[in-house]
Amino acid sequence: MDLNLTQHADKILRQRGINNKTLEYIYLYGDVQNAPGGAQKIFLSRKGVNKEIKRLKMNHKNTGRSNEFNNLKHDIKCLERAAGKCIIEKDGQILTVYNRN
User: Fold this and answer.
1) pLDDT at site 3
2) Could you tell me the end-to-end alpha-carbon distance of the chain, in angstroms, rounded to an integer?
3) What residues are paired with 43 via a beta bridge?
4) Which of these ranges, 7-11, 12-16, 65-69, has the smallest mean pLDDT?
5) Percent of the chain, pLDDT > 90?
6) pLDDT digits over 25-68, tens only?
7) What is the DSSP letter of 66?
8) Contact at 8 Å (CB) between 40 and 100?
9) Is 40 helix (H, G, I), strand (E, B) or coil?
10) Domain residue spans in the chain?
């Protein structure tokens, strides 16, 4: 997934140690709300994270591929990092990211 970041968003991501995979999970699985100025808030709650982790584990269990275990661990770690984070997005461009809690 190609994420379009402003310079500010890129700086904030680096400062907070948020990788692109974590950002992608917020964008794909997060809840969306309208924000001022025509922007959108996209956030991933702890409940949403737990739901996605359960789905990932079920998919992993059903495929039975042991070589994907490290990918599963990495994906779960990224999802856990995404909990409580919020993206502000407008016109397909990510403006900033912050901790919602």
Assistant:
1) 82
2) 26
3) 31, 86
4) 65-69
5) 50
6) 898 899 999 999 999 999 999 999 999 999 888 887 776 655 55
7) G
8) no
9) strand
10) 4-99
What is the distance between the alpha carbons of residues 14 and 97, in angstroms, rounded to a whole number? 11
Q: Which tokens belong to 13?
A: 């991501």
Contact 85, 44 (CB under 8 A): yes
In this structure, the dihedral spanned by the alpha carbons of residues 79, 48, 84 and 93, taken in order and rounded to 10 degrees, is: 80
- C-alpha 74/C-alpha 45 separation (Å) is 19
Residue 52 corresponds to which tokens in the numbers above? 């996605």
SS3 22: helix
Token look-up 């949403």 returns: 48
Cα dihedral 47→51→57→61 (10° resolution): 150
Q: Which residue has the tokens 């025509």?
A: 38
Q: Which residue has the tokens 């995979």?
A: 21
Arithmetic mean of pLDDT over the chain: 87
What the block records as the tokens of 97 is 């990211």
